[in-house]
Amino acid sequence: MSRRDGPIIATTEVIVVGAGISGLAASRELRRRGKYDVIVIEGRDRIGGRIHSDASSFPDVVIDLGAAWIHGMKNNPLVDIAKQCRAKTYRTDDDNIIMYNARGEEMRHDELEDAEGEFLRMLRGAEKYANGKNSDLSLRRALEGSAGTKNLLKPLIRFQLSSYLEYDFGAPASQLSAWYYDDDKEYKGGDALFPDGGYIQLLQHISRGIRIDMNVAVESIEYGKGSGVLIRTNRGTYKAKFAICTLPIGVLQAGDVKFHPPLPDPKIRALHRLGSGLVNKVILSFDACFWPETTQYFGVCHDAPGKYSYFLNAKLFTGRNILVTVALGDHARAVEAQSDRDVQAEVMRILRDVFDANAPDPTRLLVTRWGQEVYSRGSYSYNKVGATRKDFKVAAEPVDGVLFFAGEHTSADYRGSVHGAYLSGIRAAKELWDND
Ligand SMILES: Cc1cc2nc3c(=O)[nH]c(=O)nc-3n(C[C@H](O)[C@H](O)[C@H](O)COP(=O)(O)OP(=O)(O)OC[C@H]3O[C@@H](n4cnc5c(N)ncnc54)[C@H](O)[C@@H]3O)c2cc1C
């Protein structure tokens, strides 16, 4: 018997591929409507996908290795879920920051404020410059064209370009579309994270009562109008009337999962026009705290801005001596090729320059490598040069009335976020329902 003819191990009405927030939101919505039997199949041995609340690497504390913040507390549906499951939230304050120059000297607060004004003006200039062009170009080229390369080298401008903009949008400015990099929406009301127990609490809450088959790796999805869906996995074949596919953009672009027949050409082209971004975190815990305890963030204007310029002081909300920093832009990929020991040496050099030449090595260090995780292959989607909002919408379009799509990369308005992924799951469930 060929593998394609393997035994059918489960038959149901709806299969949801992926137990990230979008897949779980879709499953809950279908169950809430009371009509469908749903099975979620998940390649990993945990739910959450790019939400990974790590409870084992650091003693007595849960650290979010992927998404950590609810972005925008006003009208954000995640806030209600957090309340329902009584997850404690902690408001972070972006203005509670100390900036250091390359020599490790503290900078004045008004220097940063002035630079923030200048950076906004530069972005507006880049927008005007890009709008005057006949075709899309990268944000970096538009900034260089409008503000000049020299201005982009100013330490506080470089810091903001990297630690604010490239972090938010998940890609180097040289890849972001100058026309559309920021044509998404946001909720207002500040940001919050989960000091006790991590983001996973929300997923545990919404997944209650849903059948989730773990360690089931999808290899192919066969679909057809009137014939339903066959999903072939490492464990056997699942049969259903409908499927909701929440495979991440990086996994779809890599072609790890085959579709039979192949997805429509416009969808394939849209998926490849979009960017699959990358952001990595480095988490360090220490025996003692050698940084200002009550400050939320530290920014360091050194020569390689994507390389650990921005530090979150997790002591403020965990009570432990923990710092979290990020690898951004081009460095997000480069860090994945480095050993933990090399990463540690680089981060410690910066911390010793800034805080204490005798600062001890960390007792524990963890480096994420989201690009190498075969079930993620990246952090979040972005508008690459040449991509438009329409591409996110085409990525979301159902195929043949049986195969539906969710995931952060299918949300034109809220791509790259947990709330965008959550809302996309609800949207896909409704599409399925309306179509049945
Ligand atoms: C480092 C980092 C920081 C972030 N920070 C924030 C933040 O602070 N706030 C915020 O709002 N967003 C943040 N995000 C983005 C956010 O995590 C994502 O947008 C969101 O979690 C995506 O959810 P999803 O359901 O679309 O995809 P996923 O969570 O990736 O779910 C897809 C699921 O499919 C599974 N899967 C993949 N391939 C297969 C296969 N072949 N077979 C079976 N299963 C498979 C995966 O294991 C996964 O569980 C961050 C992301 C990263 C990586």
From TrEMBL:
Needed cofactors, names only, are:
FAD
Keywords assigned:
FAD, Flavoprotein, Oxidoreductase
Residues in Amine oxidase domain copies: 21-431
Q: Give residues annotated as binding FAD.
A: 22, 218
Q: Which Gene3D superfamilies match?
A: 3.90.660.10, FAD/NAD(P)-binding domain (3.50.50.60)
Gene Ontology MF terms: oxidoreductase activity
The residue ranges crossing the membrane are: none
Question: Could you confirm whether the keyword Oxidoreductase appears in this record?
Answer: yes
Signal peptide span per the entry? none
Q: Quote the InterPro entries the UniProt record gives.
A: Amino_oxidase (IPR002937), FAD/NAD-bd_sf (IPR036188), Flavin_amine_oxidase (IPR001613), Flavin_monoamine_oxidase (IPR050281)
One Pfam family name from the record? Answer: Amino_oxidase
Q: Which top EC class is given?
A: oxidoreductase
The record's similarity note reads:
Belongs to the flavin monoamine oxidase family.
Q: What is this protein called?
A: Amine oxidase
